[in-house]
Amino acid sequence: MAKRYWLMKSEPDVYSWDDLVDQGEGTWDGVRNHRAKNNLAAMQKGDQAFFYHSNIGLQIVGICEVSVAGITDPTDETGKWAAVKVKPVEKLPASVTLKQVKAEESLAEMELVKLMRLSVSEVRPEEWKKILSMSKANAKQAD
Questions:
Q1: Cα distance from N-terminal residue to C-terminal residue, the chain
Q2: Domain residues of the chain, as ranges?
Q3: Rounded to the nearest 5°, which phi and psi values hold at 104?
Q4: Which of 30, 5, 10 is nearest to 20 (CA)?
């Protein structure tokens, strides 16, 4: 099965990119939205996700990889919610802001734009490539 891409939101004052890097592996849990749960359940080991800082920053800051898929959320007593474990892959050369994503016409259909409140969303391969190129362009502008 082909690798799939995702975007996972976390409030940086609760769990940030740096927290994941410090831990080396983290459990993505606490999701209580059915569509986001279905996305977590669909993830396979090796899938990659953008790490997005929500509420503070509103930006894509890094790439993480699913290291363990198909686990039950350890914070859920009912056993009906999904979770995965993720490991950091790399920090983006420069962050890509939500404002930049919204301004990019080719990303108008991205779930990050269309379903703003969704904490775990799918990213199509062409969207993934565009975000990576935007990050590289942002890094060049910063030099």
A1: 39
A2: 5-142
A3: -90, 110
A4: 10
Q: Which of 55, 119, 127 is nearest to 82 (CA)?
A: 119
Q: What is the pTM of this model?
A: 0.95
Length of the chain: 143
Task: Copy the structure tokens of residue 78.
Answer: 């009912």
Tens-digit pLDDT profile for residues 37-94: 999 999 999 999 999 999 988 999 999 999 999 999 999 999 999 999 999 999 999 9
Count of C-beta atoms within a 10 Å radius of residue 74: 11
Whole-Å CA distances, 27 to 64, 65, 74, 137, 138: 12, 12, 9, 31, 30
User: In CATH, which superfamily holds the domain spanning 5-142?
Assistant: ph1033 like domains (3.10.590.10)
pLDDT digits (tens, 9 = 90+) for 112-130: 999 988 999 999 999 999 9
* Tokens encoding 2: 């082909």
Number of C-beta neighbours around residue 116 at 10 A: 12
Phi-psi category of residue 14: left, alpha or beta, with phi > 0 → left and psi -120 to 50 → alpha = alpha
Residue-wise DSSP of 13-41: TTS-HHHHHHHSSEEE-----HHHHHHHH
